[in-house]
Amino acid sequence: MKQLVILSGKGGTGKTTVAAAWAHLASQEAPIVIADADVDAANLELVLAPTRLETHDFVSGNVAVIDSQGCTACGTCVTVCRFGAVVAGNGSYAIDGSACEGCAACFYQCPVQAIRLEEQRVGQWYRSRTRFGPLFHARLFPGKENSGKLVTLVKQHARLLALDTGASLLLVDGPPGIGCPVIATCSGAQTALLVTEPTASGVHDLQRILATAERLRVPALVLVNKADLSTAKTQEIEAMCATRGVEVIGHIPFDEQVTRSMVGGQPVTAQADSPASVELRRAWERARALCLG
Amino acid sequence: MILAVASGKGGTGKTTVALNLALAVAAHATQHSHPQVILLDCDVEEPNAALFLQPILKHRGEVGVLVPDVTADRCTGCGRCAQVCQYHALAVVNGRVLVFPELCHGCGSCALCCPEGAIREKMRVTGVIERGQANPSIQFAQGILNIGEALAVPVIRELKRCLIPRGSGPYLVILDAPPGTSCPVVETLRGSDVALLVTEPTPFGLHDLELAVEVARGELRLPVAVVINRDGVGDQGVERYCQAKGIPVVMRIPMDRRIAEAYAEGRPLLEALPEYRQRFLDLYQRVQEVAKQ
Questions:
Q1: Which of A171, A203, B8, B10 has the CB geometry, 3.0–4.6 Å to A176, for a possible disulfide?
Q2: Distance in angstroms (rounded) separating the CA atoms of residues A105 and A217
Q3: Do A61 and B264 touch (CB under 8 A)?
Q4: Residues in chain B within 8 Å Cβ distance of A180
Q5: Same structural domain for residues B133 and B109?
């Protein structure tokens, strides 16, 4: 079983459009398992229309709570908190839950034991059925922490099912950026597909995600979306990839069908003859040859 | 006024809005006695505003996390540090303390709890802050997370210390937020007077806008306003949602190939299409009204 993760550095370059299209194409050839590792803003389900089979709570990390009865307002907690989470109240202190990192420094230092730690239910994860195969996805509740841990959990369950069922591919739609959830997404992957666009920001961000993939020792492939927007920037991307020995496996043209398909809840490849679909299919065949062997 | 530009979904045009608003207000301010403009790029995983602004960055400082440094001859191997650490950044094996610096959040609890006073703290560099000036009279700062680092929040927290305006006159601080809805976004939005949410009129845009509203309005109690970018593509879902939730749509930027091409080249929209200057000044007016409510 091979694991292919789709990343981009910059947001909005088309990761989910590619993930949905490749899930569609790959599932016609062999059984696959799909995971959405963008647990902040999971969009793959808008195209795959999953039927939820299981829902699990994600409990992770603590938040400090000050008992206003016991608090003597000595201010020790304010002094030790490095996250600015302790706010002055009426004759006592209180915790701003959105700032608290659950480090428990205040809990251990409070001289009158007026602080307790409460476990936080910060999200949910789901096992679902879709027309292209099983989907593992999650929702981190807005503003919460530990997205990396939730990504790891989602991927672990997806991987186990893929191994159990003999699926040949685990296809993972990743988050934007290069930080904690991206690092968690890369773990165990054989290939990272980096979706970029020929813009100044796209080039800059591709450079950083390429360096991140290199650091994490995940071989990368690059796919240029809206490639006809700027020939100059597309050439810049190709030159950068050539220097790093990374293959550019496709150039998707701007195609209004992409948005129309999204609005209709379909992968763009359901319209097999649209220009973006044709190139997405060609890129998939190349990625399959390189990743699945 | 502190204005945060956020989005949930990546690639909707946060940087375009943040930067052109800064340019429009700053240019206007030189002609009239109006606010000092400060722009902070808080998308420390993939910062892009500087590509368009070309600021002169005179100051550069490293930032990081304070991690434990155990003095071996004082340590008795009692294990108290590992017991209080909520992030599993310390472990005691065969009477010796092992530190896993990349897991450390820098809370300092281990040093406070060590009964032997054997733990000091040292800075582990995870990123840099760059500060300087861009024309016309915009104070600019950006944070850059080092490749391979997981934690964006400490870099954002340090960057936001740059926002303190000089003197007592009126000021406009614009924060360009990262995509998503988890801790880096919360760290950026906290303490702002208003959140300006940039979206696109598609199902993905709507889905992620709803999550961004939950964070900004629901969790952080900020007034919110929406900018619809690429107006004309997709469907009516975003308009209907904003109407139902009583969220003002304060600007619509049409789908326009000239805008996309200027963006691709790394040119600010106002430079390519100067007629937008008044529209961004109007946006500033409307956002001020929203912030006052």
A1: B10
A2: 36
A3: no
A4: 150-152
A5: no
- Whether residue B197 is found in the same domain as residue B262: yes
pLDDT surpassing 80 at residue B77? yes
Burial of A1 (0-12, 13-18, 19+ CB in 10 A): middle
Which residues between 127 and 146 in chain B have a beta carbon less than 8 angstroms from any beta carbon of chain A?
Answer: 145
- The CA distance from B279 to the nearest CA of chain A, in Å, is 24
CA-based nearest residue in chain A for residue B80: A108
Backbone angles phi, psi at A53, to 5 degrees: -100, -35
Bridge partners for B68 per DSSP: B121
Whole-angstrom distance, CA of residue B212 vs CA of residue B218: 9
| Residues A24, A28, A33: CA angle, nearest 5 degrees | 65
Instruction: At B240, list the tokens.
Output: 């209907």
Paired tokens of B127: 């990123």
Inform me whether the C-beta atom of residue B12 falls under 8 Å from chain A C-beta atoms: yes
pLDDT at position B83: 97
| A212:B148 CB<8 A | yes
pTM of the predicted model over 0.90: yes
pLDDT (0 to 100) of residue B80 = 97
Question: Which superfamily does A2-49+131-291 belong to?
Answer: P-loop containing nucleotide triphosphate hydrolases (3.40.50.300)
Residues B176 and B85 in one domain: no
Task: For residue B61, count CB atoms less than 10 angstroms from its CB and return exposed for 0-12, middle for 13-18, buried for 19 or more.
Answer: exposed
pLDDT tops 70 at residue A276: yes
Which residue of A8, A179, A200 is in closest CB contact with B265? A200
Best probe of the B interface among A80, A140, A201, by most B CBs < 10 A, is: A201
CB atoms within 10 A of CB B221: 8
B168: pLDDT strictly greater than 90: no
* Res B32: pLDDT: 63
Is the pLDDT at B236 greater than 90? The verdict is yes
Of residues A9, A82, A142, nearest to B108 (C-beta):
A82
**Are A143 and B215 a contacting pair at CB < 8 A?**
yes
The architecture of the domain spanning A60-121 is 2-Layer Sandwich (3.30)
Question: What is the residue range of B103's domain?
Answer: 72-117
Closest CA to B212 of B244, B182, B252: B182
Q: Are residues B153 and B280 in the same domain?
A: yes
Contact by Cβ (8 Å): A173, A6: yes
Mean pLDDT for chain A overall: 96
Contacts B221 to A, Cβ<8 Å: none
Per-residue pLDDT tens digits for A109-166:
999 999 999 999 999 999 999 999 999 999 999 888 878 999 999 999 999 999 999 9
Going by the DSSP 8-state scheme, the letter that residue A9 receives in this structure is S
Say what percent of chain A tops pLDDT 90: 93
Distance CA A124, CA A105 (A): 28
B123 in contact with chain A, both atoms CB, cutoff 8 A: no
Measure B34 CA to nearest chain A CA, in Å.
Answer: 31
